[in-house]
């Protein structure tokens, strides 16, 4: 099962450059605005998720029972900023440069979140091997952006 989940994560990872390329097409050929293209992307996603929740009969719990920390609701804002920024960057940087830099940022953030157990992550201390892996990935990002 663990291998299947890793493969699923790998496959879904291919969606990011595809999504950003499609958003960039909406920007270039219609809206001429990264925020508008991102709004359309979120709108279509909201419709798709709404249909999925409706068709799967997934109950939406009442907000009154929520124990979610107040800052967790900002995830949507981070998503909007991220998608809008990437929609802007995609045609300017290209898929490989953009994704390689995103991955470096994600790795740096992830090692900090894991090490300190931030936002609900299980504490996973920084190790020399993890640092080496991140350094190698940053070196890879440098190489694909330089040459």
From TrEMBL:
Q: Give the keywords, sorted.
A: Membrane, Transmembrane, Transmembrane helix
Q: Which residues cross the membrane?
A: 34-56, 68-89, 95-113, 125-144
Q: Which InterPro entries match?
A: YdcZ (IPR006750)
Top-rank taxon of the source lineage equals Bacteria
Gene Ontology CC terms: plasma membrane
Q: Name one Pfam family in it.
A: DMT_YdcZ
Q: What is this protein called?
A: Transporter family-2 protein
